[in-house]
Write a structure and sequence with these properties.
The structure is a homodimer. The first copy, chain A, is mostly helical. Chain A contains 11 helices and no strands. The structure holds a DNA duplex.
Chain lengths: 202, 202
DNA sequence: GCCATATTTAACCACAAAGTTAAACACTTT
DNA sequence: AAAGTGTTTAACTTTGTGGTTAAATATGGC
């Protein structure tokens, strides 16, 4: 549970906004589920818009630093890659609704959201840094050559996609939430081995 | 343009619903953009809900058969895999909004949408068929062994994810729509080569 | 006991959006 | 010319929802 009503509201609101999006969320529903009334919502956050903004900001502020940190780790290429993959999987295991929310925000309010993104992240440079390290590894002949953007898509696709596709995947394969969770734990190694095999230079 | 007003409405409505979701879409906006009035909307479709349903049905009816066909192709494992990857990429190149829409529907109205899915598709058996063929190939020692569900996630992740992540990807890598499109064409081969290398049995 | 902050109550307003209707008009077919 | 279908116009009702308010009531620290 929550310490005070204010954070309780934030928690409930977050759940609704992330699951259903802004337009489909009723402030009344948030109030009901938090066991308070609209007047208190107004008291703390003034408006639905402000509440929503507060939530996106908080999400970005928990996610982006972890992304950046993972991308900027010191070490060999393979060490860095492993940190990235495991960090992402761990993060999404904790907060499975995040990836979908981000994608959703981005595909709608692109301009505004990208602004917010740029404002509060050293994320993009971190990506560029890792891309560079991929490139160097290719030039050094340590891994097979392919366009860095494509390799990035392969890595992110294998890592992030399962969490976005979870509902359809669990339906088709008849997996429970627990099954899925253990599959994702296994997956860290699976991805690393897959990448090692795919990138081996012969 | 559209032949008659009815299909024009469907086209405009589809665009709005797919981009913004049900709740954020205004019937008035649809009417305005289609150059007609709400009365005509009502004349043809009775309600927003019915119009929306009509659209999801039409989307599923164009997508699912193509999925099923790709998954059920005859041939060797690698031939089948190539058909799947290229079919998916081609489909999403034509209709880039589809993957996100499907994921979005599924993560919200799971129960109802899955019903609709099951009702109008032989998709699931097709997936099972391909999974079986993966399994046989592993048993025969032709490709490296790994849990079929994991391999499926790798394939789908690399193939589908880029289209979902397009907005963020294009932002980070400063790609235009055209850049992205050519990248996806390249990608068919990239994915196939990546898979071949990753699955090679040594 | 007093004061500040938190919280409830119970209204209420304003507005946007969906849905509805009736009448008229246009166009084509018969 | 009549009939049917498509389409517009212009109103209207209804409902949902966000926002607002003022007063009353707790609650806890000083």
């Amino acid at each position: 549970m929550a310490q005070d009503k204010e954070t309780l509201i934030l928690e409930v609101a977050r759940k609704h906004f992330v699951q259903k999006g802004y337009a489909a969320t009723r402030t009344q529903d948030i109030a009901d589920e938090a066991g308070i009334n609209k007047a208190l919502l107004h008291y703390y956050f003034r408006s639905k818009e402000k509440l929503y903004h507060e939530i996106t900001v908080r999400i970005l502020d928990t996610i982006l630093p972890r992304f950046a940190k993972a991308l900027a780790t010191e070490g060999t290429f393979w060490e860095r890659l492993e940190v990235i993959v495991t960090s992402y999987v761990d993060l999404f295991q904790e907060q499975p609704d995040i990836p979908f929310f981000i994608m959703s925000e981005l595909s709608q309010k692109q301009a505004r959201f990208v602004e917010e993104l740029k404002k509060r992240s050293h994320h993009f440079p971190a990506v560029q840094g890792f891309v560079l390290s991929m490139h160097q590894e290719m030039e050094a002949g340590n891994i097979r050559k392919l366009p860095p953007a494509q390799l990035m898509l392969n890595i992110m696709g294998m890592t992030v996609f399962p969490f976005i596709a979870k509902p359809i995947f669990c339906t088709v394969f008849e997996f429970s939430d627990n099954d899925f969770s253990t599959l994702m734990e296994e997956r860290k190694d699976i991805i690393m081995n897959f990448l090692k095999a795919a990138l081996k230079n012969d």
